[in-house]
Every structure is written in structure tokens, then in C-alpha cells.
Amino acid sequence: MVVREVGSSARTFALGIADALDPSLVPDTHPRLVRVRTGAAGEPVGPVVELGKLLGRDPERLWAEWRKRLGEAGPSHG
């Protein structure tokens, strides 16, 4: 699965899919928000552990869903 970061310094990563992920959720060419395992610096290292719903081909819909999720996340406390 190809995962693309967002932002001005966006990078693209080819990541595997976790064995525990439902095999009926086959990746396709539509944009989705996904959850991946990350390294110590927050970089995606895979695998993909969760596939979000299909977001179609509309970039505005993807950005709207991303902004919504960022708002729901709230401040992080570490």
C-alpha cells in the first residue's frame, strides 16, 4: 500500500498491511485516511493497521475529513 504524507515536505512510503487487518478490506486506488505504525520520530514505518472509509476522488473531501479528525484528536499529553 502506498501512503503519502501531507504538507509541504510530504513524502511517499510503500508500506505493508498488518496481518490482523480484515482481508476483505482490499486496498484500492481511492484516497483513504489510514493508521500506520510509526517510528520514534513519528515517521511511518508500517504496517498499515487501519483503513478509513473511501473518500472518493475529491481532494476537498479528503482535506475536510483530515481537518475533522485533527479537531477530534484534541491536544496530546505525553
The unreliable regions are none
| Structural class by sheet pairing and helices | alpha+beta
Helix content: 10-25%
Give the N-terminus to C-terminus distance in angstroms: 30 Å
**Which sequence of strands runs across the widest sheet?**
1-2
Specify the biggest β-sheet: 2 strands, antiparallel
Write the topology of this structure.
Blueprint: E1 2-4, E2 12-14, E3 34-38, E4 44-51, H1 59-73
Antiparallel strand pairs: 1-2, 3-4
Describe the 3D structure.
This protein is α+β, with helices and mostly antiparallel strands and 78 residues long. The chain has 1 helix and 4 strands; from the N terminus they run E-E-E-E-H. It has a two-stranded antiparallel ribbon with strand order 1-2. Strands 3-4 form a two-stranded antiparallel sheet. Strand 3 and strand 4 form a beta hairpin. The mean pLDDT is 76.
Task: Jot down its keywords.
78 residues, 4 strands, two-stranded antiparallel ribbon, two-stranded antiparallel sheet, 1 helix, alpha+beta
Short structural summary:
The protein has one helix and four strands, in the order E-E-E-E-H.
